[in-house]
TrEMBL record:
Origin organism lineage: Eukaryota, Metazoa, Ecdysozoa, Arthropoda, Crustacea
PANTHER family: CATION_H+ EXCHANGER DOMAIN-CONTAINING PROTEIN, PTHR31102
Recorded family membership: Belongs to the monovalent cation:proton antiporter 1 (CPA1) transporter (TC 2.A.36) family.
Protein name listed in UniProt: Cation/H+ exchanger domain-containing protein
InterPro entries assigned: CPA1_transporter (IPR051843)
Keyword terms: Membrane, Transmembrane, Transmembrane helix
The keyword Transmembrane helix is annotated on this UniProt entry: yes
UniProt organism field: Argulus foliaceus
Gene Ontology terms describing biological process: inorganic cation transmembrane transport
Transmembrane residue ranges: 78-97, 103-124, 131-150, 186-209, 215-235, 255-278, 290-311, 346-362, 382-402, 408-429, 441-462, 482-503
Length: 547
């Protein structure tokens, strides 16, 4: 028989076992809410992206259905994000400025010039056309829609200053792009390709315009050099796509094209600025001051060279915010150069100063270890916002009712003749180089598209004349220049993009091994050299052991 002590021990062991055991499972009947939630969830699973395989590229309807699945992804996610951001920004601006009607109308007009051209650019890219073409067309449509009066609310002073900011970012990006390339072996070819065709085309257009339209001599060449620049923003995406497919990698076709196009834009802007500074009426008389040419040529160098050498050491590379500070320094100094030169009547000096300053500073920064290319990325982000403004602003200045059929016809003829002459000149300046016939033809084709420099310079004379309150023949000539600039974009931008994409794979050789970028190529070569050195070292060790 168990004693009392044994009974107590057994009782305590049973209590411990009961405490350590799992609680009894109590089955509960599902509530009505849980039941309906399960039913709804079973229906919603049909619309989830994870439950559907990604369709093939050629099935457009299936891909459209796949794009509508949840959660938002791809283009649909971008569109929804853009819609939410633009709507909330517009509501915020309205709530801030609702008590100031005049300022509200001006601000919302500029905001609409940003948003709607951005949508037009996205739709143009989706249709495989240059995005800037859609931005320009949306600007023209906004000006010519009845009962949709935005242009009258856009302040001309704000419009001009916003265009100047676009020019600052454009020139800064040119300096940054040129600093990326090592052009020791190609600099003579790039220099010839970036200067001679631009000068020949601008001079020829000036002579033809003088003979056909009879406008003053100086304004003829201003018009010519405003049209002579090409469009790196169209050339670069096409070249990037072809390089990814292995076309034109060995001889550096992309480097030659991109560097020459930026130099071409600099030459076009500089000559345009020199002639514009000489042609703007002063006190009712056209003041031709030859000293402005010398000032424009050297003032930019005297500003950009020493400041570029100075800011390349600031801030120190160990600073955690070095990238954003360098971007701020470059933008402020370039803004001072561009806007100050325009106010002083020597616009060419600002272009030379901006490109020289940015090139010298970025060339030093790129040689640092662990370099964070914040300047390039920051300028690209700014250009993403300012590009729709630039093309929307020039498009909104073109009323269809003011277009003269005769002027438009002559403009189309002159633009086509200028493009043909520039392509021929580009081919001739490459004679005697390492490039073969097909590569020369392709580079000549890349000189066809026009866009950015025309949008930046097309309306600048009209802005300056309106600011100085001039009227009469000079203003009409400036309006004609604006029409030429818009037509050159509408004609050459889509045509150039199509010709580059069509003839690039046919004219350029395709490499057997496609490398993503030059860094990968250098890494592979260095690895091969290291392996060869290691094998040689092992062979020497074996020989020494045998001896």
């Amino acid at each position: 028989c168990a004693t009392d002590e044994d009974r107590g021990r057994i009782h305590s062991d049973m209590e411990t076992a009961i405490e350590e055991s799992d609680p009894p499972i109590v089955t509960k009947r599902p509530t009505l809410r849980a039941k309906y939630s399960a039913i709804i969830w079973s229906y919603c699973q049909v619309f989830l992206q994870e439950n559907h395989p990604e369709p093939e590229q050629d099935k457009i309807i299936e891909r459209f259905k796949y794009a509508l699945l949840c959660p938002p992804h791809g283009r649909m996610s971008f569109l929804l994000t853009f819609f939410v951001l633009s709507s909330t920004t517009g509501i915020g601006l309205y709530s801030l400025l609702s008590h100031y009607p005049g300022l509200l109308h001006k601000t919302m007009s500029l905001y609409s010039i940003l948003v709607f051209p951005l949508v037009g650019g996205y739709l143009a890219k989706y249709a495989r056309m240059p995005g800037l073409l859609g931005m320009l067309l949306v600007g023209i449509i906004m000006r010519n829609i009845p009962y949709f009066d935005i242009y009258s609310h856009v302040d001309m002073a704000w419009q001009a200053r916003l265009r100047w900011v676009c020019v600052v970012v454009m020139l800064s990006r040119s300096g940054v792009t040129l600093s990326k390339f090592s052009m020791e072996n190609l600099w003579m070819l790039i220099f010839r390709l970036g200067t001679v065709p631009c000068i020949v085309e601008g001079s020829l257009i000036g002579l033809i315009v003088r003979g056909i339209l009879g406008i003053p001599w100086m304004w003829c060449f201003i018009l010519g050099f405003s049209l002579s620049g090409n469009a790196p923003n169209i050339i670069f995406p096409c070249l990037k796509k072809m390089n990814a497919n292995g076309f034109g990698l060995i001889k550096g076709i992309s480097i030659i094209d991109i560097a020459a196009s930026h130099i071409d834009n600099l030459v076009s802007y500089t000559l345009f600025g020199v002639l514009l500074g000489l042609s703007i009426p002063r006190e009712g008389i056209l003041g031709y001051k030859l000293s402005n040419v010398i000032i424009s040529s050297f003032a930019g160098i005297f500003y950009g060279l020493p400041l570029g050498l100075f800011i390349r050491y600031f801030p120190e590379k160990a600073s955690p915010s070095a990238g954003i500070l360098r971007l701020a320094i470059v933008l402020t100094l370039n803004t001072t150069a561009v806007v100050g030169s325009i106010n002083l009547g020597i616009p060419a000096a600002g272009a030379v100063a901006s490109v020289a300053l940015t090139y010298i500073a970025c060339h030093k920064w790129r040689r640092e270890e662990n370099y964070d290319d914040m300047v390039t990325r920051g300028l690209d982000h700014l250009w993403y916002i300012l590009e729709p403004c630039l093309f929307g602003l020039i498009g909104i200045q073109i009323p269809i009712s003011y277009l003269d059929g005769g002027v438009v016809g002559y403009a189309i003829l002159i633009i086509i003749l200028g493009v043909i002459v520039k392509m021929g000149t580009s081919y001739l300046v490459m004679m005697g180089t390492v490039l073969n016939h097909n590569e020369k033809v392709f580079i000549a084709i890349t000189s066809l598209p026009k866009a950015t420099i025309q949008a930046a310079l097309g309306a600048m004379p009209l802005d300056i004349l309106i600011k100085k309150k001039f009227e009469g023949e000079v203003v009409e000539v400036a309006e004609t220049l604006l029409i030429f600039a818009v037509l050159s974009i509408l004609i050459t931008a889509p045509l150039g993009a199509v010709l580059i994409n069509v003839f690039g794979p046919r004219l350029l050789p395709k490499e057997t091994m496609v490398l993503g970028n030059l860094t990968n190529a250098v890494t592979i070569v260095e690895h091969q050299i290291e392996m060869i050195d290691r094998k040689c070292y092992e062979q020497e060790v074996d020989l020494n052991d045998e001896k």
